[in-house]
User: Which sequence fits this backbone?
C-alpha cells in the first residue's frame, strides 16, 4: 500500500464525523446568507477566506447593518480567541512542518484541533502529512457545505431552522470520545467547573477569555506536577 495513499485514506476516515457536521452546518450557513439576501458566491468566498464557523454567522448579520470595522474586529477576536490556545498546544507538533505549517495554522478549527492533536497515526505514516490532509479535508467540507446551502437556497428558496446547533453537537461528540479515552478525568471535570464558575461570575461576554486563561494556568500547574512526580 502506498504510504501517501494510506495517509490520505486514514485522514479521510478520521474526518468523517467532521464531514457530516460541517456539511450540515455549512448548508445552514449558506441558507442563512441566502435568507439575508446574499448570492451564493458570498458564503462560498467567506468560507474559503474567513473559515471561522460561528464568526461567519456573526459577520453575516453585521454585513446587513451599518458597517463598523472595529466592532467586527473585536467580535472576531473574542469569538475566535479560544483558537489562540489551540495554537499554543500545536506549536511543538507543527514546528517542523515547513511550508505546510501555514495551511495547518490557517485551518486550525475546533474539530480539526481535536483530530490533529489526539489522533493516533499508524506507524510509518508522516504525522504532519496526515494532519495536513485532515485540515484540508475539513476546510473542503465547510466550503462545500456553504456553497451548497447558498446555491440550493437560491434555486429552491429553502429555509431550515436549527442547523446552527450542529457544530456544538459535533464538538460535544468529539469531546466525549476523548473523555472516554482518558486515563484520568481531572482536567475534564475541572474544565467544566471552571467554565460554569466563570460564566456565572463574568457573564456571557467575557467568560470565555477568563476561562481559557484559567485553563492554561491549570494545564501548566498539572504539567509541572507530573514532571515533579516523574523525577521522584
Assistant:
Amino acid at each position: 500500500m502506498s504510504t501517501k495513499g494510506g495517509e490520505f485514506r486514514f485522514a479521510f476516515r478520521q474526518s468523517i464525523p467532521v464531514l457530516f457536521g460541517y456539511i450540515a452546518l455549512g448548508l445552514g450557513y449558506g441558507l442563512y446568507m441566502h435568507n439575508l439576501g446574499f448570492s451564493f458566491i458570498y458564503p462560498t468566498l467567506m468560507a474559503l477566506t474567513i473559515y471561522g464557523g460561528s464568526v461567519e454567522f456573526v459577520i453575516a448579520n453585521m454585513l446587513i447593518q451599518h458597517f463598523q470595522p472595529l466592532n467586527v474586529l473585536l467580535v472576531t477576536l473574542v469569538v475566535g480567541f479560544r483558537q489562540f490556545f489551540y495554537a499554543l498546544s500545536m506549536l511543538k507538533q507543527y514546528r517542523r512542518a515547513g511550508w505546510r505549517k501555514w495551511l495547518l495554522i490557517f485551518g486550525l478549527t475546533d474539530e480539526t484541533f481535536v483530530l490533529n492533536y489526539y489522533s493516533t497515526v499508524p506507524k510509518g505514516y508522516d504525522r504532519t502529512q496526515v494532519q495536513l490532509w485532515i485540515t484540508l479535508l475539513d476546510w473542503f467540507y465547510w466550503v462545500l457545505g456553504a456553497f451548497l446551502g447558498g446555491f440550493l437556497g437560491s434555486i429552491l428558496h429553502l429555509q431550515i431552522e436549527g442547523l446552527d446547533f450542529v457544530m456544538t453537537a459535533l464538538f460535544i461528540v468529539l469531546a466525549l470520545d476523548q473523555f472516554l479515552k482518558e486515563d484520568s478525568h481531572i482536567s475534564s471535570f475541572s474544565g467544566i467547573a471552571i467554565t460554569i464558575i466563570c460564566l456565572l461570575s463574568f457573564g456571557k461576554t467575557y467568560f470565555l477569555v477568563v476561562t481559557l486563561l484559567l485553563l492554561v494556568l491549570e494545564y501548566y500547574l498539572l504539567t509541572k506536577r507530573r514532571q515533579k512526580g516523574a523525577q521522584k
